[in-house]
């Protein structure tokens, strides 16, 4: 909105609509700043050490917002220039200064709030660690129950804080590391409960103590990793060693090779040779593995040999081209570059095939969990000899799965998936011995219900990780085949020619700068309407209501169309816009059906008004669909069609702004006291959340295992009675 104000073009003639739009933007900015500052002031009041800094930043932001509102108060002026009142037209520099002050002060508030959030997470972690130390030393069952109840509450708080933080992380690698650490904490919380209970019931059992110690150690490591991610630091100032995979190595190598087309002198031949050596060294993880098939091993060795030969040929031509840039030599260089890259692609394909086929076979083979079932049965029987036999088999299975994770990491294709592979490897590495110690404890105490429950918990963790591996394998294959990586939004964008056969032959075009300027005002009006619709949908208590969901969907699409008028967003061409408008109209028709359904629930007096509005909506959506399907040849006709689509979308959104409060009012009236409006949540519960918005679905990430943790705490009375 600020950008719109700063970039508006001064024109001698200004219509009333233009003046009203500018005033509405100014007021919207001021209101948004007011809401933002209210949150900042609430945080300041609860955090005295930063209260002064936060208060100053909030005052600056509020002042800047009010200045922008004053300078844009132009709607009532017929001739702003001749009036003594200072406006955006007489003092544009004032708006620029106010905008800079606003952005500066808002940034200060965000940085201070961020420091507070980090401090909250560290404080929460310290509480958890302190309670864990108490749990480790506890000797009586009653005392354990009381302390674990406190521990559960602290873990729930930590889960909320770290979940919000994970949502806010922009770095996908950090987000994946945070998710892995929080997954460990979720699973280990239940393990800690049963392992500690087993130790208390059998205090002299060495295998039970080993089992419990392993859980505590793993939880401490996970807690430490969360703090490393949050504070962006590592203990003792160590720098993080990024895991090197074959995929990332090949990608970097190819980039360097292809860079020779532009510059023959930007790297040395030794540099390129070293990069290939590192890649081929990593392929030894495949060729040395006992689980790689003979066929895959032979192909990888052949391709490795070929890669060396292709690089030798490339270096030879490259050196000649540095001395003498003839046409023939440059053509030879291009051929050498293509052959080297092709060889690396084949090597990448081969290691991918080797890793994924091994993973698919192992996951299929271990899907019946026969070893785990046998351990449970022999443990209950107290058959130590049989337990020892099956623990050996589990150790073999663990080695297979660990090797599988190592090989998959090399071909995962993205850093987050690499981290997920490393996390899976650690999980199998740690959980295997824990299952063995739990099984040995049960075999020594076959009648112990708690020892049996403890083994069940560790076996479930193993089964859960195997299940996760199937999903991970699917994601890795999706990346390899190019099915992943597209931005996922609330509504999938239509592809040219997919939904409308009449549009297949049209050439997709973009709006030029002049056309964007012409349509900017209409786009701004559309933007303001999407804000109004979002504001109305947020007032509904039942966010799953069909009317709300259709409204959010339409707002999301309208916002995409607004971004298109600015040359931004995911709608890149006029073709994309027309497809989006067609789906928008379809969504509007679905909303009309939902309104008809609602009319059956409301009182007879209200029904005619609702049906009338529904018919209006259907008529507008049909008009939009007709406009979308009309053919447009040539630049001028295409722009006219774009303008008409945006205009008709704006009209539908205007009607939607009237419909949503009407429906909410009718539902409230009909439900006799069960209001559909929800109060604004206090900042502490909401943790400075961004509002529910159809445009940002990716921010809806649930915090880990909070429900299960709360259930553990709730059930402690039952535990105490036992």
TrEMBL record:
<protein>
    <recommendedName>
        <fullName>Alpha-catulin</fullName>
    </recommendedName>
</protein>
<dbReference type="GO" id="GO:0007155">
    <property type="term" value="P:cell adhesion"/>
</dbReference>
<dbReference type="InterPro" id="IPR006077">
    <property type="entry name" value="Vinculin/catenin"/>
</dbReference>
<comment type="similarity">
    <text>Belongs to the vinculin/alpha-catenin family.</text>
</comment>
<dbReference type="InterPro" id="IPR036723">
    <property type="entry name" value="Alpha-catenin/vinculin-like_sf"/>
</dbReference>
<dbReference type="GO" id="GO:0005737">
    <property type="term" value="C:cytoplasm"/>
</dbReference>
<dbReference type="GO" id="GO:0007266">
    <property type="term" value="P:Rho protein signal transduction"/>
</dbReference>
<dbReference type="InterPro" id="IPR030045">
    <property type="entry name" value="CTNNAL1"/>
</dbReference>
<keyword id="KW-0963">Cytoplasm</keyword>
<dbReference type="Pfam" id="PF01044">
    <property type="entry name" value="Vinculin"/>
</dbReference>
<dbReference type="GO" id="GO:0051015">
    <property type="term" value="F:actin filament binding"/>
</dbReference>
